[in-house]
Amino acid sequence: TDGGGENEVVTVKEVDLCLAENGPPHHTEKYELMEREKDPRLVVRRGQQFVMRITLSRGYNPEKDAVSFIFTVITPAADSIIGQWNIEIDTKLKNDGAFSYMDQVYMEGDNLLAEYVLADTGLIWRGSYNRLRPCVWKYAQFEKDILDCALYLLTKVGKVGLSGRSDPIKTTRAMSAAVNSPDDNGAVQGNWSDDFGSHTPPTKWIGSMKILQQFYKNKKPVKYGQCWVFSGVLTTICRAIGIPCRTVTTYSSAHDTQNSLTVDYFVNEEGETMEELNNDSIWNFHVWNEVWMDRPDLLPGDYGGWQAIDATPQELSEDMFRCGPASVAAVKQGEVLRPYDNAFVFSEVNADKVFWRYAGPTQPLKLLRKDVLGIGQLISTKAVGEFKREDITDSYKYPEKSDEERATMLRALKQSESHFSRYYLNDDFNDINFNFELRDDIVIGQPFSVVVVMKNRSRTENYTVKVILRVDAVLYTGTVKDAIKRDDVERVVKAGAVEEIRMEVTYDEYYRRLVDQCAFNIACLATIQGNNYEYFAQDDFRVRKPDIKIKIEGEPVQGQEFSAVATLKNPLPIPLKKGQFLIEGPGITSQLKIKVPQNVAPNTEATVTFKMTPKFSGRSTIVAKFVAKELEDVDGFLNFMVEPKNEVNGTGNSTAA
């Protein structure tokens, strides 16, 4: 304090928000808002004390000054409104008693909070159920403009009022709409075609930072995203405002447009799925989010914990493209009428898959196959503290083939208002056993084979079987794009014999017809002559792409520049032209774009070197993506530790590990 007459009214000269002191206990020191040199701002978490220091115009005399100041702590309530706050000095006395708070998004366990609130890098699973592909995603919730953008999306795009911003149910439901663009010009515009013009294809993004910085600057939807992009951005926003959140992938995920809890496919005499009749679909994978909160609105019942929310614009929910929060515990019990959108989430993980033989508009449908096991497989998220997959399927559904699973399905069907009739069953025919297989681990650039094995169980009868084998290129949403190859084969399967039909597909046959994520649909329609029994099967797969290898030169130290090398081996029989590496990592405030100076010949490597200076010590991650006209959507990552810098004369930054 400064000197001055004690007869003068004491005034406040300066308020120090103690950013360096408040950051570590609140785990907010990594926010760019806290560490920037120009106009830094205090970021604190609700329900936790923080420190302020106030400088007065003169010494404080409790006998003469008839005011009291809060010198040490102010505690934001556990249900505080999320947003920007102005602080005024209150002269009222404050109780010294202990405080006890229970935030609605309270999660117990430092390791869980480190993963679901503080981790700025994660894995998002893509591919297909038989070719799982983990892809790195940089959430970057602490970087420049990200927190401001999250608050903008919440208040301006999501239009959540003051009272709603203290409610995580309303907040996350609004965020699931604000991230997509159809209703409100939110952060990301979806595109599920293979035409992205001059804009960024969804497979080219490696994190949320560039997307949200671009949106915050221009206030226009960023082009383009698909489900994992929407989910990655939504995770960033939730973690930025302190809501525990994780990305979740479901393989063979149903999109039920009719609320029938079934996904219905119609197949013609050529074994082709009839896109013009198929309103429902099964995506090779679908990515959404889970947020952690209590659900007092669903009492009585224990429906708190993880809640599913989904920013991918699929179906309208209360006249907007949004989904959730849907209690995962309620979904598992088949409680499809619980808010919000539980029926849609239940279908995504547990619908029945039905194939119908379509013979014309005046002919009855014939049930070819009913699959009650295929939908909702290998539900995946990143493990806590490890770059590994955690399977959380059992949190959404009981084990397939169990009595509990079928009972749950029947309970859900009884609550559904849709009555879907099943018309005709195939005649029971067991003489020929079919086994449909995809041979080999398919690496892009190599051939592969599709096989159907037929075993005649009869000891007396020979059967003539007509088989159609086909391979089509598909989007990951299940939409068929181009036919790649088809074989028609007629074969006599003698009594007790086994016959194998194999179709070989070469790189030259499939390469030019590949779409976005190198996904295929393989199908087999077999007809036994004489009794018109038909067997139909299909499967999804993708070709595997190489990984980018990243190597660090030397030992990374906080505040010191170091070098790293990224390398990719060309797996194709053709050269890669105009290749480019995209890099994000510690201390890189905007994405690095490094061009490969020459063509990359088959079976040779492309290598680039780059530098970065980490601001913080502790665990960190470098992520990389490679794009070229001939090969794109290739990525890699490296986890490593940054050592703290040496203290000199007692100075240095204080950071939380």
Automatic annotation (TrEMBL):
Residues engaged in binding Ca(2+): 350, 352, 400, 405
Keyword annotations from UniProtKB, A to Z: Acyltransferase, Calcium, Metal-binding, Transferase
Pfam families: Transglut_C (PF00927), Transglut_core (PF01841), Transglut_N (PF00868)
E.C. designation(s): 2.3.2.13
Lineage: Eukaryota, Metazoa, Ecdysozoa, Arthropoda, Hexapoda
Family annotation (SMART domains): TGc (SM00460)
Cofactor binding notes: Binds 1 Ca(2+) ion per subunit.
Segments forming domain Transglutaminase-like: 219-313
Catalyzed reactions per annotation: L-glutaminyl-[protein] + L-lysyl-[protein] = [protein]-L-lysyl-N(6)-5-L-glutamyl-[protein] + NH4(+)
Family classification: Belongs to the transglutaminase superfamily. Transglutaminase family.
Cofactors (names): Ca(2+)
Single Gene Ontology MF annotation: metal ion binding
EC class of the enzyme, as a word: transferase
Active site, UniProt feature: 227, 286, 310
Cytoplasm listed as a keyword: no
Protein's recorded name: protein-glutamine gamma-glutamyltransferase
Naturally occurring in which organism (per UniProt): Timema cristinae (Walking stick)
